[in-house]
Design goal:
The chain is an alpha/beta fold. Helices cover 48% and strands 14% of the residues. The protein has helices at 2-21, 33-63, 72-88, 118-126, 146-152, 163-178, 210-215, 230-233, 251-254, 259-276, 284-294; strands at 91-96, 109-112, 132-137, 156-158, 183-186, 219-225, 239-249. A seven-stranded mixed β-sheet has the order 1-7-6-2-5-3-4, sandwiched between helices. α2 (33-63) packs across α5 and α3 packs across α4. Residues 285-295 have low confidence and may be disordered.
Length: 295
Amino acid sequence: MTLTAILIVLAVALSGVTYYFGGYISDLIWIWLPFVLAYAYFWGLFFLYVLYLAFYAHLIRRYGKPEYEPSPRHMWVLSQITFVCNMFFRVRFHATGLGKIPDRKTNFMVVSNHLSGFDHVGLISIFPNRRIVFVHKEGISKVILAGGLIRRAGYLSIKQGDVLSGTKVIEKAGKYISEGICSVGIAPEGTRNKDFPEPEILPFHPGSFQMAYDAKCPIVVFAIQNTNCILRRFPFSPTDVYFDCVAVIEYEDYKDLSSAELAEKARGYIARRFEQKRARFYHLKPKKQKTESEN
């Protein structure tokens, strides 16, 4: 990613300058120092960048507009941040089925299950050079660092439990897709699955799919695994997370279905993927052992 490359170049340059002008170059005992300095400078520069973004996000939250139109520049900034966040949190990212996704000229709806805030981090990483915004709950726009940037990128905020607000947001999302402005992602469960793994997927809200009917666009379905484990395993263990594009549902395939039938169809693709790839989940082995011991 561009931001990472820039930070690496700056870190190596600063390390070389420190090593040379600090007088360490004359003594071979310090030959290891440039590598340590480069690592330290990289994360130091990254956190300085984070502080800048935090200040910028604060200005947007305090003095900015309530809503912004989608901004490709701010979408790009978010994609750069997510790449480095994956490195910092030791996320081993696995994405499959990306060849199914429509080409750049086609905007679409993205649906997925919802396990944690890292779901969007992964989905943004999948579409680094594409215009895409996500529907999120209102509280996310108040997060100290990301909130202002998310709002400035044009993400759509929805009030949980407010039917009128939800309807307006879905209508706007359909407009974004149909008018070629950008693609839109949403988690039709409506909230994070806090009781995972029982159930593994919450019911999908049929109303979420109205944007697809309005835009007559493809629906890209992702099955997400293990994002809920990242913070629990950090910093001692890396986390393998999986983003599988399990289906692309074309308009011709769902135009005659009701929204409830379409919601169940999309949910079924994810459920079947979980059945096929259950061994990937970190929770299943301990759960099985506990069950057997109780018996």
